[in-house]
Structure formats: C-alpha cells, structure tokens
Amino acid sequence: MIINCAAYNAVDLAEQQPEIAALINAAAVKNIATLCRDKNIFLIHYSSDYVFDGAKGNLYTEHDTPNPLNVYGKSKCAGEEAVITSGGNFLLFRTSWVFGNGPQNFIHKMLQWSQKNPVLKLTADEVSVPTSTIDLVDITLRSIDKGLSGLYHLTNSDYASRYEWGRYVAKKLSLRSTIIPVPMSMFPSAAQRPLFSAMTNLQLQEEIGTAIPDWRDAVDRFLLEYPQQ
Ligand SMILES: NC(=O)c1ccc[n+]([C@@H]2O[C@H](COP(=O)([O-])OP(=O)(O)OC[C@H]3O[C@@H](n4cnc5c(N)ncnc54)[C@H](OP(=O)(O)O)[C@@H]3O)[C@@H](O)[C@H]2O)c1
Fold first, then answer.
1. 3-state class of 151 per DSSP?
2. Residue 158 needs a FRET pair 20 to 30 A away by CA distance; which of 37, 43, 48, 134 works?
3. Could you tell me if 200 and 61 are in contact, meaning their C-beta atoms sit under 8 angstroms apart?
4. pLDDT one-digit tens code per residue, 198-208
C-alpha cells in the first residue's frame, strides 16, 4: 500500500508556479497511480475541497462535479482524475482545513496573531470543515480495515466559517483579543478561493459504520494536548 500525503499546497504561490503545482499534484500522482496499478499496490491519496467552486451554497457530496477556481484546485483535480482513471485500486479522500501539530495550521497562527493584535479580523463568509489530523488518520485506518475503495469526503462533521472557528478557539483558550467578522473580500489574495466549500462526510460515515466527530470535539481534544502559549 502507498499512502501519498505529498502535495504542492502553497495556494497563492501556485498562481505564479502553475507548472510546479501541476508536476507535484498531477504528473507525480499519475506516475504513482500508474506504478500502483502495474504492481498491484493499493493507493491512498488525498485531495481538497478546493476542487469545488463554492457556488452550490450547500454541503458538497461525492456526486457533485468539481469546478476549481484556482491553480492549486485545478492541479488537485487533475491529480484526482489521474488516480480515478489509472485502472488501479485506490482510496481517494477529499479533506479540508486540516489542523494538527506544528506551526502550519490555523489554530497556531491564531494564537500568534492574538499575542500581537488586540483585534483579530476573521472571514465570516469563508466556510468549510476544520479537520484534525488525528481523526484524518483514524478514519483512514478504519477505511482500510473495512476494505473501502473509491472516492470519499473525509472531514470532521458539521462546518464553520473561519470566524466561527476562531471564536470557538478563542473562547476555549480565554484569549483576550476581540474577534470581528469580515468578508473575504477584505483580504485580496493571488488565488481566488471558494466561499462555501464545506463537504458532507455522511457517505463515509455510513460505509465505515462509525460516527465521525464534530469539528468542535476535534478542536477540544487538540487543545487539551496543545502546548500552552
Ligand atoms: N492542509 C489543509 O488544510 C488541506 C486541505 C485539503 C487537502 N489537503 C491535502 O492534504 C495533503 C497533505 O497536505 P498538508 O496540508 O498536510 O501539507 P504538508 O503538511 O505541507 O505536507 C505536504 C508534504 O508534501 C511534501 N512534498 C512537497 N513537494 C514534494 C515533492 N516534490 N516530493 C516529495 N515530497 C514533497 C512536503 O515535504 P517537505 O516538508 O519536505 O517540503 C510535505 O511533507 C495534500 O494532498 C493536500 O492537498 C490539505
């Protein structure tokens, strides 16, 4: 079995480096998927909610058609295509707003910002599903045990805006910063991002026969172990 977690994930920089994003997120994935088919190796690969444009205004299911808005999303979409059409056996998981240990996550960044700024502006119209690495791994392993294959949405349950997520963390940690909701248009960026890219994980919950925890529960467990600032 190969579990491919590698990706080019610099969403804004990808707008200037579409060839590199395509090499890592699509061409390399195609090579891995072809190798897996030829050697009869089961492939697990991760994709993103950014394959969707956010125009649905409701939770995305596995049956919805991708329509990525930015270079990163297009390259991830091409990677999905490569896995699906390879002819090999695979599990393809779309996930979103992943948080875990290390500095590359929203919770860590929020704590850094709150130390320097009395007021934090967080987007209220940017909505997806915060997903913990612990649950991502746990559900990946359960899916393997169940012998699943195909495409699934693997996120924690329910959804939130960045503002709601940030407020939840701030309340849990009793941060003193004031958090105010702002529109995403307040932060112009190189890459256009979907407004509502939250996905439903119901299909996966049914297949594995286990409830996937709410993102708030995942945040609670994460903060219990998180080094105090
Ligand atoms: N983070 C999110 O919110 C999120 C949301 C949706 C989907 N995903 C997907 O989840 C997966 C994991 O992403 P992540 O956010 O966890 O990113 P990450 O922590 O930055 O991990 C990406 C890994 O890819 C490796 N990598 C990059 N280019 C490579 C190359 N050319 N050859 C070999 N390895 C290379 C990196 O290695 P180095 O550390 O050595 O550079 C890094 O270990 C990706 O498929 C991503 O698209 C993530």
1. strand
2. 43
3. yes
4. 999 999 999 99
With beta carbons less than 8 A apart as the criterion, state whether 196 and 140 touch: no
Q: Which of 8, 23, 29, 98 to probe ligand 1 with, by most ligand atoms within 8 A of CB?
A: 98
Reported as a single tens digit per residue, the pLDDT across 218-227 is 999 999 887 6
Which residues approach ligand 1 with their CB closer than 6 A? 5-9, 24, 46, 48, 76, 95-98, 104
C-beta separation of 191 from 70 below 8 A: yes
Map out the domains of the chain as residue ranges: 2-225
CATH node for 2-225: 3.40.50.720
**Which pLDDT score, from 0 to 100, does residue 82 have?**
98
Q: How far is the CA of 205 from the centre of ligand 1 (A)?
A: 25
Q: Which atom of ligand 1 is nearest to the CA of 133?
A: 16
